[in-house]
Fold these 3 entries.
Entry 1:
Amino acid sequence: MSTPRQPPHDLEARLREALRAVVDPELGEDVVSLGMLRSVHASSSGAVTAELALTIASCPLRTQLRNDVERVARAVPG
């Protein structure tokens, strides 16, 4: 028996909350509190898109932040 898929807005809220676990290593705070998480969208099929604003365009931690966001997002059921 499979788990029913959550409505996209519920998944988006859970993703936003879960992404508080992603901490900007330079600033020491989570990306949600810092306002770096610009948007989170989930489709009815469960595909997720998250937009993160970096502190500078050439942020040396870009890859680490992207990997952290992907890891946390994948762990959220839905």
Note: The longest strand covers residues 37-42.
Entry 2:
Amino acid sequence: MNRILKKYLLQRYFYFLITNIIKDHIKGKTIIIGDRLYTDIKCGHNANIDTCFVLSGDNGVKDINALKIYPKYIIRSLQ
């Protein structure tokens, strides 16, 4: 996944979006919801925004400790 983000310069895009737009305008009113620890949840951590990890994606609960990426909330699905 990181190779794909780097290849298409998405890491810079997400970093710019979070640090320059979201962080200053809706801090404290925003939560990043995602099903990948190493992209979605890590992005929220990097921006100091609350995160919600959805267990319907590539990662599971066992990956939280393995990757050392800890979401604030964990839910089974969006349904």
Note: The two ends are 26 Å apart (CA to CA).
Entry 3:
Amino acid sequence: MSLVGSLEDLGLNYFQQGKYEEARAELAKAIELAPPQNKNQALRTMAISYAFECKPGDAAKYEQQAFDSQMAAQNFIA
């Protein structure tokens, strides 16, 4: 497993425990290190972590990045 994948998994683990701040710290690292084609999962998990805390503006910021990436790549399935 890659470093980015490990960071995403750690972030998801924290997220599932309700530790949203810790999750976002790991997801931010994954987003920074991932190549563009591999960022969407971390971006979406980051968005959901903000949504769970009723922070729609922050959630939208990350979801928009994932959406824009998919549109640019014409990836309409993922």
Note: The chain has four helices and no strands.
